[in-house]
Amino acid sequence: MCKDVKNVSWETETLMGTPPKSKWGSFEPRAALSHVGLFVALMLYTGGGGLVFRALEYPAEMAKQEFHRERLVTERWNLIRFVSERSNATDNDDVEKLLSDHLAVYERVLEEASSSGLALEVENNFPPLEEKWSILQAVFFSSTVLTTIGYGNIVPETFWGRLFCIAYALIGIPLTLTVIADLGRVFATVVSIIAKQLPAMPKCCTRVSDANPTGQRSLYAFGAVGFLFLYLSAGAGLFKMWEDDWTFYDGFYFCFITMTTIGFGDIVPKRPKYMLICTVYILIGLALTSTIIELVRRQYAQSWQQLRALSGPLADTLRRLGDAGRGVDVSALHSDLRKVLTVVTMPRLSSANGSALTDKRRLEWEAAVEAVIRDITAPAPTQKPPIVQIVIYESSV
């Protein structure tokens, strides 16, 4: 008996005078800790992966830059020595050809040094432009691996780095998808609770939404897409402040390409101190994007189901029309279909206060429906086949 009392519904509690518990009152700390624990586990996995990537790739990066630096210095001095030694030569044709060859070698070495990340500054002994595998850059790279974005501006080049990347992605991508799905459910629950706490809509809007639930769902889907664009715009504003050479459009383009996991890599943040914030922004944005895409997908699926439900009777009617041949009255069929669509799409009648139908209105509605049904089900008048009269005249000519 007591067990049944514990399972009493909120409607019964309301009738007994006990107010129902709100969604905010049913907050469970253990459930919240599980959500937070998943997110923290992903953050720790991302940070640990970044440290491993740095340990594997940073020494190789330094060795590569040192090799290109020494080669660049050597070829530069070779070019200078050749010019100084051949400055007084009499055979100009040979000098020009040899100088062109030395210059081509030096230009190729310059290009390779620049692509390896060295700044072409002779006075500073060709320092690196940026540290590719710094701690923050490595953590940001690990986040792009887990989210399958993959900008391509930083990639592992050593054997062990690539091997670790494969194993790291095999374990981390399912974990990331789980966290993104969990965050999406949390966001959907929060939005649902907030929507229930909002004041009621005006009566005119309520009547329209009750009469057309499909339009109401479409409105929710468009609202979710609008919220996604607001989130992208907020990120674009932040990146415009962080990156000196970015415009608002550049930031919005980067956020959109990132949240949809396209990841061209043509525009990538360059400020290392903002990489952690950028990583958190991307993870939250991916959860929002997946939730909103799911809402839009459901709307498409419902529209497709409604289209199939409508096309089924129409296809069956057209098939019977083709089987029956000329004995079917097409104009009557067209009129019947118009009547059916009128009844289906007619908004439900409601009283002035938006509650249930009055008895008089209900009777009128039922009578109208019965009349339309009788009119449709009534047998169509049979048409007599046309009579063709042939007159033959006989002549003696």
TrEMBL record:
The chain crosses the membrane at residues 31-53, 133-152, 159-181, 219-239, 251-268, 274-296. Keywords: Ion channel, Ion transport, Membrane, Potassium, Potassium channel, Potassium transport, Transmembrane, Transmembrane helix, Transport. Its main location: membrane. GO terms for molecular function: outward rectifier potassium channel activity; potassium ion leak channel activity. Residues 131-187, 227-298 form the Potassium channel domain. SUPFAM superfamilies: Voltage-gated potassium channels. Belongs to the two pore domain potassium channel (TC 1.A.1.8) family. This is TWiK family of potassium channels protein 7-like isoform X1. It comes from Trichoplusia ni.
